[in-house]
């Protein structure tokens, strides 16, 4: 089956086909590593993973590159403000390089927990300064740049179709009113390719004797000591690893107007050909109606959810319940709903048997078609999940729990990666004849309390055992006791 995807460039759904050969090349703008990723950022990377898995599921070969922004991402998209990583370093009393490395590793850890397969290449901006300088030099030799006191800028008036992705109206463009505009910029849309550490592009500024004001991340260049503008890294690294043009470029919707618009401008001006064919953008995650943002100070990280007893894959499921082009409003209540919905599927999968059942074959083949159709239509995961739930209801009625069922669910889990065959409960041992089962993402002390509770009950000390049970309930756990088992999980 072919995948149709919404291309922001054409504002329509288009069938994905390789430009040449048989591989889909895909580039995703990665995280700026000055803090932990929040669950808004992570929605975007689960989407990238879903897209890559879907392409593979439909038989395409895929090469996926995602960058790590570890330099030069300023607090505004308008090339003003402080470098976020340098700022983070000062705040934490560490070097900018240490900060970037620490948060990069934390990010990779998040990706693994969310079942996001590692990209084929994960290049960092600081490892590609040479390539970025080469790109700027090329733009300089083609007459697209000019110099101001604080850096080298791209002259957007030199490019006829500047702003085609965002469909910007060049005549009436207004930059954010809050940000002071560099008065030397020729056009409001012009953007920095190289920022100087010191004004005028000198290699040293006698006036900067206060060491704390000096940048930690800076490099020599033909234009003076400094660092690359944020957009340059993506142009330089995508082309290095994927060539130009490549097929798919992804990002959050916030990247359309500035970051991706400027990536396109740089790369297409430098090479005289298109950068990427399909521009795919995923929507934001909101909390109380507002976009979750690191700069806000308040945001939710994966570890915050784990501390509350959620499995990271519950979050993955939560994302997939909405279409990637719809906003999602996050709440713990809806995450709980996702957890129990996912457990229903897992329970069903764990109940499957290996023998073949008559009539099953055709039933699951039809369901597979419905599932594939949902995914092929611009990754319609809410519809795909609906197919799964109706499949479970109908299969339970018909007692279709055999080998074909297993194949069906294994196949869909290749693409959704929801750990459908992993028991969310872990056995922590027996108390008498009863097995104590605890949901795998639990707080450490819960295991101790549970064991103690079961032991006291076995010894006939019901008062103590009831007290321990009440303690678990107070901590937000459900204690379910049957003949053979005690199951403990977060509500
Ligand atoms: P940044 O580290 O700021 O470059 O952001 C990394 C990625 O997360 C980008 O692709 C953004 O579009 C995306 N992003 C940022 N905030 C949100 C949000 N609240 N919901 C979804 N994606 C987001
Ligand atoms: Zn980018």
From TrEMBL:
Gene that this sequence comes from: cysS
Cell wall biogenesis/degradation as UniProt keyword: no
Residues that, per the record, bind Zn(2+): 29, 234, 259, 263
Cellular component, GO annotation: cytosol
Subunit structure of this chain's protein: Monomer.
Motif ('HIGH' region): 31-41
Protein name: Cysteine--tRNA ligase
EC number per UniProt: 6.1.1.16
Obligatory cofactor(s): Zn(2+)
Annotated ATP binding sites: 294
């Amino acid at each position: 089956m072919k995948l149709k995807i919404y291309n922001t460039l054409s504002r329509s759904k288009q069938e994905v086909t390789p430009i040449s050969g048989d591989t889909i090349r895909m580039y995703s703008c990665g995280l700026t590593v000055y803090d932990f990723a929040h669950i808004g950022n992570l929605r975007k990377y689960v989407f990238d993973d879903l897209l890559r898995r879907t392409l593979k599921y439909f038989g395409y070969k895929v090469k996926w590159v995602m960058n790590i922004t570890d330099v030069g991402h300023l607090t505004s998209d308008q090339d003003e403000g402080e470098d976020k990583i340098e700022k983070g370093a000062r705040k934490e009393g560490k070097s900018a390089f240490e900060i970037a490395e620490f948060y990069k590793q934390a990010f990779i850890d998040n990706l693994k927990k969310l079942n996001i397969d590692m990209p084929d290449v994960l290049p960092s901006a600081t490892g590609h300064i040479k390539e970025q300088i080469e790109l700027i030099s090329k733009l300089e030799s083609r007459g697209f740049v000019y110099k101001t006191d604080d850096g080298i800028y791209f002259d957007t008036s030199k490019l006829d179709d500047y702003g085609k992705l965002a469909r910007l109206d060049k005549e009436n463009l207004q930059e954010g009113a809050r940000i002071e505009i560099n008065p030397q910029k020729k056009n409001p849309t012009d953007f920095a390719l190289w920022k100087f550490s010191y004004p005028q592009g000198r290699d040293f500024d006698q006036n900067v004797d206060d060491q704390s004001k000096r940048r930690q991340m800076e490099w020599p260049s033909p234009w003076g000591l400094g660092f690359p503008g944020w957009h340059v890294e993506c142009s330089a690294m995508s082309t290095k690893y994927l060539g130009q043009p490549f097929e798919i470029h992804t990002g959050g919707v916030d990247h359309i107007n500035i970051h991706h618009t400027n990536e396109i401008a740089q790369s297409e001006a430098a090479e005289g050909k298109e950068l990427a064919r399909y521009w795919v953008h995923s929507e934001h995650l909101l909390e109380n109606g507002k976009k979750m943002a690191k700069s806000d100070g308040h945001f939710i990280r994966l570890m915050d959810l784990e501390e509350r007893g959620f499995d990271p894959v519950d979050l993955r499921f939560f994302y997939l319940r909405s279409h990637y082009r719809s906003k999602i409003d996050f709440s713990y209540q809806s995450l709980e709903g996702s957890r129990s919905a996912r457990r229903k599927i897992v329970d069903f999968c764990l109940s499957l048997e290996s023998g073949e059942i008559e009539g099953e074959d055709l039933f699951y083949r039809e369901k597979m078609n419905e599932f594939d159709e949902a995914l092929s239509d611009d990754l319609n995961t809410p519809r795909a999940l609906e197919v799964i739930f109706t499949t479970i209801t109908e299969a339970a009625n018909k007692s279709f729990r055999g080998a074909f069922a297993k194949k069906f669910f294994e196949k869909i889990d290749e693409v959704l990666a929801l750990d459908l065959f992993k028991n969310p409960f872990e056995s922590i041992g027996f108390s008498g004849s009863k097995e104590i089962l605890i949901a795998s993402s639990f707080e450490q002390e819960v295991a101790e309390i549970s064991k103690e509770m079961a032991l006291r009950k076995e010894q006939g000390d019901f008062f103590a055992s009831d007290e321990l049970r009440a303690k678990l309930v107070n901590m937000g756990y459900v204690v379910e006791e049957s003949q053979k088992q005690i199951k403990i999980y977060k509500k």
